[in-house]
Specification:
The protein is an alpha/beta fold. The longest helix is centred in the first third of the chain and has 29 residues. It is elongated and about 85 Å long. The termini are far apart.
Length: about 300
């Protein structure tokens, strides 16, 4: 069994005609028939039901075709990635990120990557902490940026900057920077925060801030996306706590009170799969250099 035989099998499963398949893959029809017979013998399963005019996949053949197609696609991705690693200047890098990272350090990092690797395609996915962890583990993204995220041992995390949280209030709320003393003043308010299942670590930090003020937040709405949270606060649906940089470059009808006297801080972390450290080394080095030049403590 080799890749070419598997590719020919998938082609036959799609076309379902030996003559036309043989023409497509540039081999003689008897040779293709022999390949499929040997493949069936090696697997120990009948893959096709044959008639004079056409062939049909058996139940086992249908399963085999789905799995082989997936494996061939994965092999293509592996070979493409290997070639990209060798070249170092092409290919694609997939980055999951929180809203606040895009409002702060991430654009500078993307700019540095573009300068060093002008042919590199960058795919950005705004995501929750849970999505980023799962996507990294399943190799659906290469790097992640998440605030106060709790990671499994398979993932490396590196704090790239810290900043203050801000309390977000509707524009007509009675509290402001001058009369604000403690989070205890919003103990009876409805809170808009991410679901704990999607933002583990981040939500616990918010809860710790509130507990220190003598209460747990009364959750009325949940969203893992900062822009949704900001719009809900603007609509008067409740209050929230977000990273300060979430508000950068935005013009919304909300109040923000910087929580600069609270020990808990936003810790923006760069994440990657530990076993991929070597093949991401070129990118990680550029990010280190950029972060050192960036005034990251907000």
């Amino acid at each position: 069994m080799d890749l070419k035989v598997l590719e020919n099998f998938v082609k036959l499963a799609t076309i379902r005609n030996y003559r036309r398949t043989a023409e497509e893959v540039f081999i003689a029809q008897p040779a293709l028939s022999r390949q499929i017979q040997l493949l069936e013998a090696e697997i120990g399963a009948e893959l096709f039901k044959r008639s004079k005019r056409s062939v049909k996949l058996t139940e086992a053949g249908s399963y085999f075709e789905q799995e082989v197609s997936r494996l061939l696609e994965q092999f293509k991705e592996v070979t493409d990635r290997t070639r990209q690693i060798h070249a170092g200047e092409a290919g694609e890098i997939r980055i999951g990120h929180a809203t606040s990272s895009m409002q702060s350090v991430l654009p500078e990092l993307l700019k540095a990557l573009r300068v060093r690797f002008p042919q590199l395609k960058t795919t950005l996915i705004e995501a929750t902490n849970l999505f980023e962890i799962n996507a990294l583990l399943h190799r659906e993204i290469d790097l992640g940026f998440g605030p106060n995220i709790v990671t499994p041992p398979e993932i490396v995390e590196k704090v790239i900057y810290t900043e203050n949280f801000v309390l977000l209030l509707p524009e007509n709320h009675h509290l402001n920077q001058n009369n604000f003393e403690s989070l205890a003043q919003v103990a009876q308010e409805n809170f808009i925060i991410p679901p704990k299942s999607e933002s583990r670590g981040y939500v616990e930090t918010i809860e710790a801030m509130c507990q220190a003020a003598g209460f747990l937040p009364q959750v009325a709405q949940q969203s893992g996306h900062s822009m949704t949270v900001l719009r809900l606060v603007e609509a008067g649906m409740g209050v929230s706590i977000e990273p300060k940089s979430s508000l950068k470059h935005l013009n919304l009808r909300i109040k923000s009170i910087e929580l600069n006297k609270i020990p808990q801080k936003v810790e923006m972390k760069l994440l990657w799969l530990r076993e991929r450290t070597r093949d991401l080394e070129k990118y990680l080095k550029i990010m280190d250099e950029t972060i050192q030049q960036f005034d990251a403590h907000i």
